[in-house]
Design brief:
Layout (H helix, E strand, L loop, with lengths): L19 H18 L3 H9 L4 H6 L7 H16 L1
Helix pairs in contact: 1-4
């Protein structure tokens, strides 16, 4: 029996980084969340992504979060705002 891979390693597409303006928007959304809910930035990072340094890394010009990470953060914010 032959095994087929759905996406062999040579064909995997690397995650796309978030564009600069979207990165700024993501950071602004996080800052609004932190102010509204009265939590520390490290607490936000830990709760949203299990990464307490995420917000600090986001401020760094060299760091580019992936689309998947941005979607996870925005989903976390949306869920918290609707709860």
């Amino acid at each position: 029996m032959q095994h087929f891979r759905s996406n062999p390693p040579s064909r995997q597409v690397p995650p796309r980084p978030v564009l600069g303006s979207t990165k700024r928007g993501l950071h602004a959304a996080i800052i609004r969340y932190v102010a509204r809910h009265g939590v520390a930035e490290s607490t936000f990072g830990r709760r949203a992504l299990n990464d307490p340094a995420f917000v600090a890394k986001l401020r760094n010009d060299d760091y580019q979060p992936t689309e998947r990470t941005a979607k996870r953060v925005l989903a976390f914010i949306a869920e918290a705002n609707h709860a």
